[in-house]
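thought: fold this chain, then report.
action: predict
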Amino acid sequence: MLINAHDHFNFYKDLESGLNTIEKNKIITLVNSMTFEEYLELKNKHSKNPLIKIGLGIHPWKVDENTNLSLLIEEIKNCDFIGEIGLDFYWDKRNEMYSKQKIIFNEFLSLANENKKVVNIHTKGAEREVLNFLKQYNLKTPIIHWYSGDLSLIDEYLSIGAYFTIGPDAGYSKTTNEIINILPINRILTETDGPTSIEWVNGIYAESDYIKKILEYISNIKKISPSDLEEQIYKNYLSLNIK
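observation:
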């Protein structure tokens, strides 16, 4: 069973085609929302599909002075996981929003801890800050999405139970290649981050079956067959215990 541990349906040019690819290849897909409104739309359209797990989150780029989680609290009890959430001090140039990002991220982690939910986390430019927040809680299996920060922090993340996604820059990024080497095989998940992220990396628009190429690349580094790696990553996914 293939795993796409971080996807965005609003990044598809043709979602119907994307859904057909998911069905044809039997890809368990963790779809992240960037706003509460997007989550509600995803829930209404896709909650009955057993291959699709829907995350409730507010992306750090969407945090502003009016952001609060009061409307989300009841819905968090019912969502499959919490995501995409996190901090971004690199791509997001609104320095004045960094303190608010921290407040919202901390509130999400508290709700995740209270409701026993897996979190799908964005860390760009704030890898140490994210780690420090996570250490304040007892979240068993946080998912660290497309990590590209200080490699010396990876062991600390692993020590608190984190899993890391490997995405479409596998084979294109020296940092990602090093991360694959560092990670134990039982803490690796695969992701696409949506078709436009694949396109951003290699100039080719592709759907979630691109996971097969990512698996092949990881398998070459880890000296394991793609089929055995696929089975291991499926086991890793099951250990998240996403209902």
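thought: worth noting. The two ends are 16 Å apart (CA to CA).
final: tokens above.
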